[in-house]
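Could you help me review a protein record that somebody else here produced? Do not assume that whoever made the record got everything right. The record follows directly below this note.
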Amino acid sequence: MIDNCRVCSRWGNLFFQFQVHCCSHCYRSFHRACLFMSRPCPHNNACFELGLRFKCRGCRFRRCWNAGMRPDPAMFDGDAIRNRRRG
């Protein structure tokens, strides 16, 4: 059984989202980064080494991608999003 998030190594409740077992924080961060373009890292992609683990969206997105997370094509379908809102 998998206990740690494949992206940030946090222990806790995990979900199988975007083809990876991850925590809800990484799932939501990756989802937002896919919908709204992620900004580049201001620290030359070294935030995890500098102790700024969760401050930089660019580094977190890169770690999600390196862990194997891939966006769901339906996520970008405007009709699917509108239908989901209507319930």
Q: What stands out?
A: The domain at 15-76 is CATH 3.30.50 (Erythroid Transcription Factor GATA-1; Chain A). The chain is about 40% helix and 5% strand. The mean pLDDT is 77.
